[in-house]
Design goal:
Elements: E1 2-4, H1 11-14, E2 34-42, E3 49-58, E4 76-78, H2 89-94, E5 96-101, E6 103-109, E7 115-122, E8 128-137, E9 151-160, E10 171-173, H3 181-186, H4 192-204, E11 210-214
Length: 235
């Protein structure tokens, strides 16, 4: 599952947001690329809370990793184990983000084994707000007292498919509605179990919010990038 992010898809989330570039477009974002995520920031002096954009490495690198290039760097975190998996556990409790996307591509395989890519987006061309986690990594090889640049990474939480997505693929991202944005970013849940219940309810509320259509196989090559990738195949 690979999210594809571009401009103009989520005005209620991105409009006038600090750090957002409204001219940004990318129709074929691969893992390890830099992607925009929405985070919650608190002003230490005034206590003001606001949303802002961070540009992060798409592929989760836990803070305890000794090397930034060490694999795996998962672009997805399965909701079934995200609260207990040692790679994601701390981020799930404390470091939430939202990945804005105009939609995402998913490959369906029919009974004959033929693969067909689909573009999945919100009804009427609306974008999707994907629940994510972020982590900050600093190089442990840098001697104490010397500054080390922080590298922020992120992953998208996924779950079993719901509604119209089920015939296409057995997994899907966990999606958030506008009324869920601030609750998820704040992360003020009494427990990991409560956070999981919230995400399940939020994603189930979006069951009828999708439209999906087949697109050309050119999207399978990340060197291809342009608006024609999300054009529907002719009947």
């Amino acid at each position: 599952m690979v999210a594809k992010t571009l401009s103009g898809a989520l005005p209620d989330l991105l409009e006038n947001l600090e750090g957002w570039n409204p001219e940004f477009e990318n129709f074929n974002i691969p893992p390890t690329a830099d992607i925009p995520v929405v985070v919650r920031r608190v002003n230490d002096e005034t206590g003001e809370i606001r949303r802002a954009i961070d540009w992060v490495h798409w592929g989760f690198v836990p803070a305890w990793k000794k090397s930034f290039t060490e694999r795996p760097q998962p672009v997805n975190a399965r909701i079934e184990g995200v609260a207990t998996n040692g790679m994601f556990r701390e981020a799930f409790r404390h470091r939430h983000c939202i990945v804005p996307a105009s939609g995402y591509y998913e490959w369906s395989v029919n009974a004959a084994g033929v693969k067909q890519p689909y573009f999945i987006r919100g009804v009427g061309g609306r974008g999707l707000a994907l629940a994510g986690l972020f982590e900050d990594w600093t190089d442990p090889a840098i001697p104490a007292g010397q500054s080390s640049p922080v590298r922020r990474t992120a992953t998208i939480i996924t779950r079993s498919a719901l509604g119209d997505i089920e015939p296409i693929h057995d997994r899907m991202p966990v999606l958030l509605a506008p009324e869920d944005y601030d609750t998820w970013l704040a992360g003020d849940f009494a427990s990991a179990a409560e956070a999981l219940i919230f995400l399940d309810a939020a994603s189930r509320a979006t069951i009828r919010a999708f439209e999906a259509y087949p697109v050309g196989s050119a999207v399978g090559n990340v060197r291809n990038n342009g608006p024609e990738l999300i054009d529907a195949l002719s009947a």
